[in-house]
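Example record

One chain of 204 residues, shown exactly as stored in the release files.
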Amino acid sequence: HLKKPSTAFKYPTPVNMTAPLEMLPLSGFLTYFASEASGLTLHVINVNYQKIGDAFHREDADLTIAAIVESHESHHSCTHLYRDHFVTLFNAQSFGYTESSSLDRYLSFRNLLVSPRGYAHGLTERMLSEMGASRKIISTLQRFSTLPFVIRGTPFLCNVPSVVARYLKSNFDLSSAPLPFESPEFDVAINWHKSIERDNAFRE
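Predicted structure tokens for this chain:
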């Protein structure tokens, strides 16, 4: 809850979001603040979910909305929003991948990986490694907003959060399927440094 945000903040308030979340809750987030906090300016920037602590230490952000895959640091506060998992996104019109494709079929295709920092190793690799398997990463992309245009023109797969898949399917005529193995799960949460709880703007 924000108390008198029009006077509590004199400068743009940094809010960090991971790439897929920019596409989904941001419109509702901004609509809420436009009606409830007309004097507040938000500065939305991208964040590496593995470096949330660094963003706070550098004072790049007052709060973040991001996927949490490991325990957050003790000097951060956290409110969980929902739990999600991955599904495979693809263009069913261009090649023969289907919702019932097997693990061998999945591994025979090259994959795209959305990675803000360009890491060619995601949560899926941990699961596949435990199974003694690996997938072929053809390219990394920095942002999910680029992904649907690439998927529509290539015979590649990409694992995405299920909430992102629903959005991309309905807006870009793409298809999705459950992973042919147990999907990693992760929490999406709002995080903030405990020090800002002393700020009147963040009090009830």
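Notes: Confidence is low (pLDDT under 50) at residues 1-12.
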